[in-house]
Design brief:
A hairpin with a 2-residue loop joins strand 3 (about 65-70) and strand 4. The protein is globular, with a radius of gyration of 20 Å. Strands 1-3-4-5-6-7-8-9 form an eight-stranded antiparallel beta barrel. It contains three helices and nine strands, in the order H-H-E-E-H-E-E-E-E-E-E-E. By secondary structure, it is an alpha+beta fold. It has helices at about 10-25, 30-40, 60-65, and strands spanning about 40-50, 55, 65-70, 75-80, 80-90, 100-105, 110-115, 120-125, 145-150.
Length: about 150
């Protein structure tokens, strides 16, 4: 919309200014979201993972050294130091349980929930096309992806 700053359009100019200003004012939910996003920043090691009922063994975790790196709303997953996946993430920390949605660079979208306690983060994702999990725990017999991360020092 083209707004000319003349006396003919003072209301439109004022409305446009106030609308633009309202978009730039952070809300309490934004501050909360930023807080969780800040807590997620950095590199995380997988401590435990169950995918569709199969749990990674301690040996598999040690040999493959899977890591998650979070930076400014983006993530990357590496195995033995080589990136295997990356994408974007969106948090809804005002919901209970807290929600996370990811979109990989290949277009795969996952809906999940998460919790952060100190240097431990747990995420539970539904398989693509399945409803979002309801609790931050693994549901036996489900096709969920359940991962416990520990912050890498």
């Amino acid at each position: 919309m083209d707004v000319t700053l003349t006396r003919e359009h003072p209301m439109r100019t004022t409305f446009t200014f106030l609308f633009t200003l309202s978009l730039s004012v952070p809300t309490l939910a934004d501050a909360k979201k930023d807080s969780d996003l800040k807590k997620m920043q950095g590199t995380w090691m997988i401590a435990k993972e169950i995918v569709a009922g199969r749990e990674l063994t301690a040996k598999e975790i040690k040999e493959n050294m899977p890591t998650l790196t979070v930076k400014c709303g983006t993530y990357s997953v590496s195995i033995k130091g080589s990136e295997i996946d990356k994408g974007t993430m969106k948090l809804s920390s005002g919901k209970s349980p807290k929600e996370i949605d990811t979109t990989s660079s290949s277009g795969t979208k996952l809906k999940g929930i998460y919790q952060i306690k100190g240097d431990e983060m747990t995420v539970v994702f539904a398989s693509p096309g399945q409803p979002r999990p309801k609790a931050v725990k693994y549901e036996k017999g489900s096709s969920q992806i359940w991962i416990v991360y520990r912050r890498k020092n």
